[in-house]
Design a protein that fits this description.
mainly alpha, 4 helices, 83% helix, 0% strand
């Protein structure tokens, strides 16, 4: 599979599961989680859905602008969502102590955005 497919499939998967988890949080978890945990869960869902859209945009860009920076951005965002949102879901739902992973995921997301920024400067956009 190439990076365009990874970005497209990852974006679609994150979008689908983000909607499912958002609905689950709104209907099944409301009132069952402490307010702080619920806020964290909502943040994880928001970040997941936002980055799902960005991954789909990157997939579309990769069809027209093959770029190492875009590929790096896709990989970093895919991993960042998994670690950032995934660790928050585990922390809030299973009480699994994975909080140390969350900042690593956040750092990957930041690096993914940085690569996207560099791609904008380095590509020949018409």
């Amino acid at each position: 599979m190439n990076w365009t497919q990874w970005a497209w499939i990852g974006g679609a998967f994150y979008g689908m599961t983000g909607v499912i988890l958002g609905a689950f949080g709104a209907h099944a978890l409301r009132g069952k989680l402490a307010e702080r945990s619920m806020d964290a869960f909502v943040t994880a869902t928001r970040y997941q859905l936002t980055h799902a859209v960005v991954l789909l945009v990157i997939a579309l860009l990769l069809t027209r602008l093959p770029s190492t920076w875009l590929k790096a951005s896709a990989g970093l965002l895919l991993g960042g969502v998994l670690l950032f949102s995934g660790s928050i879901y585990l922390l809030t739902l299973v009480k699994l102590r994975v909080g140390v992973i969350t900042p690593i995921g956040g750092l990957l997301l930041i690096c993914g955005w940085l690569c996207l920024l560099v791609a904008g400067f380095s590509s020949k956009l018409n």
